[in-house]
Structure formats: C-alpha cells, structure tokens
Amino acid sequence: VTFQTRDGGLDYVWATSWGVSTRLIGALIMTHSDDRGLVLPPKLASTEVVIIPIFKNKNKTEVIGYAHGLFDRLKSEFSVEINDDEQNSPGWKFAEAELQGIPLRIEAGPRDMSNKQAVLVRRDTGEKLTVPVQEVEAKIKELLEDIQNRLFYRALTFRKQNTHQINDYNTFRDFFKTGEGFVESGWCGNPECETRIKNETKATIRVLPFGRNEDEKGSCIFCGEKAKELAVFAKAY
Ligand SMILES: [Zn+2]
C-alpha cells in the first residue's frame, strides 16, 4: 500500500501484519464449538448475555416487563440483548442463542418473576443456575470469567496432548505415516533440511515458538547439526 507524500511522491505506509484472516476464525470455530453450534469465548463474543422471557398470553405484559427490568440492570455493564419477540417459542430462542454461541442466557418466567430471581444457563456446559436478582451482575461476571478460563485451558490441554517431542528421524518419519498432531523437533535453520523433511514426510514447519531455551532445542531432526530452533511440525490436511 502506497500513499502520496506532501511533495507529490509516493511512499509506503507503515503497516502491521497480524495475519488475522478467515483462517483464524476457522480455528476459533473448530477449537471451541460443539454439535449445537458456535461456542464463543466471552472475550470475543459480541453479545455476552441474552435474556429470554418465558411467557403465556395471560402473563405476557408482566413477564416481558420483568425481563426488561433485568435488561436495564445489566445493559451498562454487559453486552446484553433481549429476545422478546412473540413469533418464536422460548425453546426455539434457546436453540438460536446456542447456535450463535452467546456465552450466557438468562431465562425469566413467571416463577422467576414472583421469586425475584433469574435462571442463568452456560453455553459451554449447559449448566443452569438460579440466582436472586440482586446477585445477577456478580454472578454473570464470575461465570463469564469461568467460561473464558475453562475454554482456554481445555484448548491448551488438547494441544499439549496432541504435541509430541521427537528427537530421532526414524521415529519422526514413522509418526507422520500414521500419526496425527504436532511434533516438536530441533531444526538447524537450513531450508534444505526443511525441504527434504517435507518431501519425505509431507510435514512442514508450522511455527517456531518463542522463549525456548538452548537445552530444549537439541540437534536438527534431519541432519543432526546443532539446532537453532525448536520447530513445530505438522501435516496440512
Ligand atoms: Zn538440519
């Protein structure tokens, strides 16, 4: 990207390159979601909480009013929506909110109204909690944090379980014949080693992680020279 300078010339802009693209969104979906739809980490969810009033014709006005009261309590602190349309059933709205990956849903029916409470339902575990109205804000905060952490550590554990440390080439080659996942091995930094590994195993370097100490790097998985990097190898599918 270039721009016109004051003196009429052309210059390049200073740009960051985060590589944030559809690929990253794909990874987000694949990492956290389930068969009911998206599961979004609260920090990335555009809507954190959806309120769904559960009403019949005879109590419609009161219950919707109660739900709006909850909405007004929460709207300054959270990204919250209310779904009070009369076209679809509560069950339909629950399923829609799950499909959209909204981290928390609040169900508010006539019984909740008379008990001055709300039912909070987690998207990640489906767990339901009945909470007195005056504790709703604190509980939402706590749950959003817990959902965020749980999703993160579950993903981290999965990655660790699927990352294998291999330091001899025969094992490395055998692994990629049948194995799935990541392999951490030393690499001397020579592109020729990388190319030959790719030709023989179809595995390529995915990332060179920061912050590894020298002992961890060992020697190049292919040529045996001192490794400059600890590389993460995987096959693309
Ligand atoms: Zn090498």
From TrEMBL:
This is proline--tRNA ligase. Coiled coil: none annotated. Its EC number is 6.1.1.15. It is an enzyme of class 6 (ligase). GO terms for biological process: prolyl-tRNA aminoacylation. Pfam families: HGTP_anticodon, ProRS-C_1. It comes from marine sediment metagenome. One of its GO terms (cellular component) is cytoplasm. The lineage of its organism: unclassified sequences, metagenomes, ecological metagenomes. SUPFAM superfamilies: C-terminal domain of ProRS (SSF64586), Class II aaRS ABD-related (SSF52954), Class II aaRS and biotin synthetases (SSF55681).
